Every structure is written in structure tokens, then in C-alpha cells.
Amino acid sequence: MPKTIAMQEFLAMMGATGFTLPIIQPFDGAVDAQQAMEAIFDVQIIEGHTGLTLALETATAGQGPWRAIREFNTYSLTQAAVYATSREGGGTQFERFLRWKLDRSSLAAEAWRTCFKICVTLK
Amino acid sequence: MPGIVDVRDWNTLFVDTTLTELRQEIEQSILTEGAATALARLETLRVENCTVHLEGSDDGQAFVTLLSTTTEDDVVSTYLSISANYGTPGRLYKFLRWRLERLSAGDYFATFRIRVILTGADGSRHSVPGVGGCGTIRRRSSGSGVLHFQPLTTLIGKGTAATIEYPIQPIGQWLDTASMPGYHVKAFVAYANNAAVKLESNPYPEEYADAVYWNGLRDLGSPGATQFAVSNETADATKSGGGYLRWRVAPVDPAQDWEITFSVGIVPGVAVDGHYVQPRVR
Fold first, then answer.
1. pLDDT tens for residues A7-25?
2. Is the peptide bond before A22 cis (omega within 30 degrees of 0)?
3. Looking at beta carbons, which residues of chain A come within 8 Å of B46?
4. Does the CB of A107 have a partner CB in chain B at under 8 Å?
5. SS3 string of B23-39?
6. Residue B151 near residue B263 (C-beta atoms within 8 A)
7. How many other CB atoms are found less than 10 A from the CB of residue A47?
8. What are phi and psi of B125, to 5 degrees?
9. How do beta strands B258-268 and B147-157 pair?
10. What letter would DSSP give residue B212?
11. Is the ipTM here above 0.90?
12. Closest residue, chain B, to A113 (C-alpha)
């Protein structure tokens, strides 16, 4: 039975000049996808900043290590679906735990802002 | 039950110039009963023209500041204990809440979060039913009869000429009003810039939840509180609750950047026999 989870409700954040990154979703908000074979993420970014990235991450254990499933430059406003599977060799693969991470790629130390939400459907 | 609670997780709150302060409502505050000590931490990313407070109270009316900062990209923390004297910052009070206080005239905003680790007298951070510990740590949700349909939140969007989908309350959070003869909506807009929150009702089951079936109840695009009654027994579409209630946000001029901070509460109506009908959230 597919189950859709609001992995992150709409969240608006603004960073000061010289801010500290990354900002990572607290573990108590991370999704435990242990029973799932497939995951379809629905990512909606309605405000972003050049060089500020939003990554979907996965790990086999809560303490990590975490690796990125997909990374978005938040400047490119988007509503994107990301498909992943728990099977090896099946394309983009996810592990038991799922979370988001805000980080910089080419971002200078200027102030920034973003607003996004993430839903995930587990099957 | 975990002994770590968020008084507020990360979010940005914008506040209109007409409001001198913005505070967490008592129904949304954290109850600390059962805990003996706490470590509270306040973190900020942006703070503009305001002070961010963590406050405590034993009666829900008189609050004492436990932590505060006006600094961006800051972390402040404190140790709290029920053994400390009443009225002192080091005391762990029954209720914890956040508050933004304006420093000078004009708009203000802050991006912040407050996390509290509550510990029982036996050192436990997790509750064991019937054994004590932090068993009563919970959020108040029904003490005043107000259902927090949408806690205070901010949405911001970049202006674009492209056709994009603007925020709509997720389907799982719509209010199922089918069992209620009526209810009151208590909505609050703290800040609005080129945006409005639209409250809509739909008399049809969710499989028919297409945009064409939604009645517009109110467009809230100006700061301030609004309260109005909704009935399932009227033919007036602007007052009819139908089967579901939801919110969505729409920019006035989609080509320009937009921002809005709002909350929506529901007070159930009174049934014919005098009993309150409790709403359910789908």
C-alpha cells in the first residue's frame, strides 16, 4: 500500500552574511523507509538563491554515512519528481533513512533565502 | 516519548510593521510537566529589527524571558531546573513559548529555531508509562477548543513569469467538516507582501477535489486577525463549509517576489443537542 509522507512541510529560511552551512534536517524528522521498495520524491522549491543547494540524502544507519540521491540548485525554481529504488542495479538507489540538506556549491558569503517542501511516496 | 521537543523548528517569520510583537499562542506552547531539568538552545540565522525570546510561565499568562538574542547566526543556551526560584531565568516553567519583540518602528523578521532537551528526575530522557520520567511532555492542542489547522508559518516565493504551482495545503491536512453543522475560522496574517492566503471549502469527496469544486470563503491579504462562521446548512457559497476546508496561497502579481506569514485555527460549532462536535483532520 503506497504511503505518502510530508518529509518537510513548506519551510522558509534566510541566512545571514557569513552564515554557517550546511543545515541538515534533524534526525527526528528523517524518514525511515525500511520496508519500501520504491520512493518517489516530490520536491517543490518556490524561492532560492544561486549556489545554495538542496540535496536529498540517504543512509543505511542513522549516524551515517550519508550520500546524496539528488541535488538541486535552489535558484532554479522547480517542482520535480525523483524516482529511486531500494534494489541494487535498478537506477537511483536509496537506503533505509532519508533526509534533506541545505548546503553551498558556489555560494559566496552573502545573505540568502529559500522556501521548499518535500513529500515522498513509499511503495 | 522523546525528551527532545521543538518550541519552534527552523522557519522564517515575517511580521508587519503594525505589530509590536509576535508570540506563540498558548495552545501551541510546550508543556514540560514531568521533567525536572532542561537544556534549551536558541539558534538564529537571520534577525532583523527584533529580539527572539524563549519564555516560560507557570500559569500561561505571566511569562519570564529564559533566553534571548538580537544577533544573526547566533547560538545561545541555558540550563533550566524546577528547583530554581520562581521568577528567575534558570527555572523550568510549566509552559515554554517563543516570542519576537520589535526593536524599532518598521517591519521585522527572524529565522530561528529553539530546541529543548527535557530530562526527568531520574535522569531519563524518555518516558516509561506509569513509571514517571517525562511522560507528560506534549503539545497543548485542545485546551481552549481551538484546533490548529495551520500553525503560524511563512511562505516566500520568487517572482516569475513562468507558470508554476503555488502552495496549497496538502490533501492529508484538509479539515473534514462533514460531521460538523458549522464551525468558526480564526485566521491571522502577521505579514503579507504581494500575497494572500485563500480559504476554500469543497462539498465533494476528495476524489472530486478538482479546483473547480472549491468555493472561495475568504481572501486574506492584509495583516490582522479575522474570525468568521462557516455553516454546512446555507446555500451561500461564501459561508458554506461543505465537506472540506483548505488554504492556498496566491501572489497578487506573480511576476514579483511575494511573502506571507499566517496561521489558521478552527473552533468547532455546537451541535443541536448542545454537545461540541470535535473536528477531524484528514
1. 998 999 999 887 778 999 9
2. yes
3. 14-16, 111
4. no
5. ECCHHHCEECCCCCEEE
6. yes
7. 23
8. -110, 0
9. antiparallel
10. G
11. no
12. B156
How far from chain centre, in Å, is Cα B176?
A: 19
> Is the Cβ of A111 closer than 8 Å to some Cβ of chain B?
yes
Neighbours of A80 (CB within 10 A): 12
Q: How far is A40 from chain B (nearest CA, A)?
A: 16
Which residues does chain B have within 8 Å of residue A29's beta carbon, measured at their own beta carbons?
A: 9
Q: Flag if B73 and A119 touch (Cβ within 8 Å).
A: no
CB-based burial label for B218 (10 Å; 0-12, 13-18, 19+): middle
Q: Is A109 on the interface with B (CB under 8 A)?
A: no
B123 part of contact set with chain A, CB < 8 Å:
no
Could you give the 3-state DSSP secondary structure of residue B9? strand
Neighbours of B17 (CB within 10 A): 13
pLDDT by residue, tens only, chain B of 282 residues: 347 888 898 999 999 988 999 999 888 888 888 889 999 999 999 999 999 999 999 998 999 999 999 999 999 999 999 988 888 889 999 999 999 999 999 999 999 999 999 988 877 765 443 333 343 444 454 445 677 788 899 999 988 877 777 899 887 788 877 767 778 888 999 999 999 999 998 876 555 556 667 888 899 999 999 988 887 665 555 556 567 889 999 999 999 999 999 999 888 765 434 444 444 443
Handedness of CA B264, B219, A12, B66 (dihedral sign): negative
Amino acid at position B182, single letter: G
A14/A113 Cα distance (integer angstroms)? 4
Nearest CA in chain A to B43: A20
Query: What pLDDT shows up at residue A39?
Result: 95
Question: How far off is chain A from B83, nearest CA to CA, in Å?
Answer: 30
Instruction: Sort out which chain A residues have CB atoms less than 8 A from B197's CB and list them.
Output: none
Give the one of B46, B109, B155 whose C-beta lies nearest to A15's C-beta.
Answer: B46
